[in-house]
Every structure is written in C-alpha cells, then in structure tokens.
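Batch queue: ligand-bound targets. Current item pairs a single chain with zinc ion. No template structures supplied; prediction is de novo from sequence plus SMILES. Inputs echoed for audit trail.
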Amino acid sequence: MTDLDYLRAAIAEAQAAEANGEVPVGAVVVHENKIIGRGQNRVLRDSDPTAHAEIVALREAGLALKNYRLEDCTLYATLEPCAMCAGAILHARITRLVYGAPDPKAGACGSVLSVLNHPQLNHKLDLLPGLLAGECGALLTNFFRKRRLEKSSARILGIEGIGTEAPTREAPMTTRKPKKKWSAKVTTDSTDPDEGLFNQSASAIAKALASKKVSPKGPASGMRMLNFYINRAGKNLSASRHAELEKAKSKLSDIIATQKPKTQTAVNKTQKKTTKKLAKKTAAKLHSKKSSAQ
Ligand SMILES: [Zn+2]
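Prediction returned. Tokens below.
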C-alpha cells in the first residue's frame, strides 16, 4: 500500500463523518504497513471538543500498540492538523505525517502556527503536506456549500433548527443574517423595532422610541418597550450596554416630560370650556326662574 492508499482510507473516514452530520475530516495511523488506528471527526456525536479525527485515530493506535508512544508510525489526515492535534502528534512521537488540504484558519503545521518541527522542541518528524489536497479540500468545501444551501432554504421556508451552528475547522459562514425584529411579547402600543436599535446610542434609542413610527401611541409606550427589553435581555447585557440603555431611559423620560405640559394645557382648556358652559347654563336657569317668579 502506498501513501495515496492510506490517505484514501482517511478520506473514507472523513466521508463516514459527513454521513453522520459531522464536518468531514478523517485520519488513519499506519504501523508496519498496517492501519492500526482509524479516526473520524466526532465532536458533535460525542459532545467532545477533543474528538478530532487525528486524536481518535491516535487513541485507537495507542490501544493497538499498548503504548502511548507511537514510534515508527505514520499519521495520514485529510486536513492539516490543528494545534491540539499537532501537540498530540508530538506527544505520540509520530515519525511521519502526511496530510491533504491545508487549513488556512487553524492549521498548526505551517498555515497559522508551526507547532511541528519547532526549533526548540526535541521531536522532529517527516512532513508530507498537500497530498490529494484538491480531493481532501473539496470534501470540506462541498460540505460547507451544501450546509449554506440548507441554511438559506431553511430560512426561506421559515424552518428553524436546520443547519444550525456546528463547530468548523473552516471559515464561519459569511452569509448576512436577516435583521432580527425584537418582540416585547406584550402589548406596549409600540411596534417592535429591529433589535439593532437597542445597540445604538442612548439618544438614538430615545429618539426612535419617542417617534410616531415606533410608538404611534406616544413615547410612554416606547418607554414601556425599553423597560421590557432591559428586563428580558437582563444578564446578557454588558455593563456598558446596560448603562447606555439606562441613559436612553432618562433621555426618553426627558422627551416625555417636555411633551406633558402640552397635553396638560389641553386638558385645562377643555376643563375651562366645560366650566364656562356650566356657568352659562346655571345663569340661564337662574334667569328663567327669576322671570317665572315675576
Ligand atoms: Zn485537530
């Protein structure tokens, strides 16, 4: 068997990982021309952040050799190992590492970090990077492309929970998040504005909440919404955001205060009108009484 054959065995592990909903990464450990450890990425299935394909394969190989030192062993991986896996490779004293695709986001064999063959570390190993790089990389790019498609169709269909966040060894999705509407879930006589509003400056928040567009029934309902938001967001708010929202509250109450006198005068006017009317009526009554008495 050749390097290519062993790396294909690692690719088969990666495909098995994908079939189980995991990011497709696979690895095998070879000793004396025999595969003594196989591993596939299983972080999701095992809820284990250390369950990278390489680690899983190293563990199996250690059990096979009944030794934590895996001397005279070659590790084949479909993706450039990360810092954790590179560290484990060093601890295992792996003699040779063959891998497929480089990992520009987390690779620790030269792409991002150079953990292996570090001048200050004793253990040195043979490195063969980039074997079947295209094929190994395509496994990942196809996987992430499919997931993006699933995500966007789920969004169109309004289905949640499909293609939700998964740990990746690749760049995070760059698709834009739709603007989230915030909902007070109570009647505040206000429209629920975009959640982003509450991330703005205190004066912008106060101004928006006082506007007819957000609070058609007046700024007081905007104040109720602000209070609901602060209570709901609660602990999730940073101290600075909390302070900004409190500032928004006092700015909004200032706006409410400047608007009050107007309504107060309006009330006074109507009151005065009714008093005048009443006075007129009583005067008229008195007058008619007087004339009937005559
Ligand atoms: Zn890793």
